[in-house]
Amino acid sequence: MNKITETLLRIVSEYDGDFKGAFNIREDGLCAGRQSTDNIKIESKKDKPGLEIHIKPGTKGEKVFIPACVTRGNIDDLVYNDFFVGEGADVTIIAGCGVHSDDEEEARHNGIHRFFLEKGAHVLYTEKHVGTGAGTGAKRIDPVTEVNLAEDASLEMDTVQIRGVDSTVRKTTGTLAARAKLVVRERIMTDGYETAQTDFDVTLAGEDSGADLVSRSVARGHSHQIFNSCIRGENRCTGHSECDAILADEGTVSAAPALEASHVDAELIHEAAIGKIAGEQILKLRTLGLTEEEAEERIISGFLK
Amino acid sequence: MNKITETLLRIVSEYDGDFKGAFNIREDGLCAGRQSTDNIKIESKKDKPGLEIHIKPGTKGEKVFIPACVTRGNIDDLVYNDFFVGEGADVTIIAGCGVHSDDEEEARHNGIHRFFLEKGAHVLYTEKHVGTGAGTGAKRIDPVTEVNLAEDASLEMDTVQIRGVDSTVRKTTGTLAARAKLVVRERIMTDGYETAQTDFDVTLAGEDSGADLVSRSVARGHSHQIFNSCIRGENRCTGHSECDAILADEGTVSAAPALEASHVDAELIHEAAIGKIAGEQILKLRTLGLTEEEAEERIISGFLK
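The joint structure predicted for all components is written out below.
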């Protein structure tokens, strides 16, 4: 793999010259390294670009790394990855994405991920996105995630867009069977003229299923963010969504988190708050000796942590 | 006026055989009584059905009653009422609506109200909606309200749909100048196969303008309610919307309260909660000697008060 990929891997995944576990490294649309384990098989799809990842029932404590990097302009990488997680497995999937452009051409990664968690499986899914390089070509990352949770399965998604992604549209849909749980923690930072859109659509189909979606965002410069979510309660279930956004400079944010209760025992809640950092918070940190800029940085990094 | 109108007036307005203030009674699309005062002129529109209501600058403490009743099926009443409220006036406008049908034909009232509040004017606007009669014809009330608030003007809207309205679509739009305030308290009860939709769209255009929208609803039987709101912060402003819904029987509710902050000093918040009455609340009242039904009634009436 090339030097840029190596740098991106260190930012978006736990790469330190090596991965401890199963992995597949995608570089500019091609495979730059792959390793399966006894319990986790990674194979190329036959019909289209992408992977089939099979995790054996009962697999515990293993990690799967599937970073994808785009290291130059004029690449529009589209990949379909399917994760089949066997009954009772408990694993961590690390799916960072870095997009780099030093030229005027657009660099884009569009990862379409489908998760099929069997009964009682648990997955911690982490995803870091970053754009780098001094090129004027737009750096775009457009993830599409489809979550299918069988009875008692649970998925925790911990996603973060660090910086430098000019445009992102993030679509996540989920369908939950009885007692399944989906927890999402999303943090997005935009600056300059970047735009970010998040769409969640989660259906709580099974009895006692639950979803908890929390999105935190900071819009700086002239950036614009849009947050849409819809939680559909079709059974006895609990759903919560929260969208908190900090505005700075000329940043703007729209939030539209919908709830649809079509069952009398659905309990759905949402909250959203958009605003600047409170003046007294800045003041407090300035009395401790920080400049206004340092105080703002401190507050923002705490908010996105 | 007929007996049904008289009964409806007692339910939806402060009618006790008479009105204390300016009034216009609309019955089945016609005028059944009108009175202006020195400060409040009520006149028929020249170009379409409806009224022009002019309230002189500085008018204080007066009331205007503009109830509208539909007393039989096969009436589709459409009315345009414009309220011009002079600088510094402080008045109460009472706009109840009752729709009655004893037959199989639909009875509908569609009131399109526009409010133009001059600088510093304050209006308390109350509106009660009810459907009555044993007819199978659908009873519909579809109010459209357009609010224009000049600098320092404020409008408090206190609206309630008591019962018996088969279908309602309630659209309210508002544009607020500097320091103007809009406060909305909406309460809607639906039962049977009734449907109710609320759409708010409020633009906080002026510096330090503010909106506070609170909707409480109870969906019983097989009824369905939809709550949509959008608060647009285009300046330094504060916006809050809240939608709380209680589900009973097979009632269903969707809520989609959007926020759009296009100014860095816009502070926008929303909250929504949909669910059944908590079991422990019922239990508490039952230990005080109430039946389960009585306990539920008590809680719902407190919630909608």
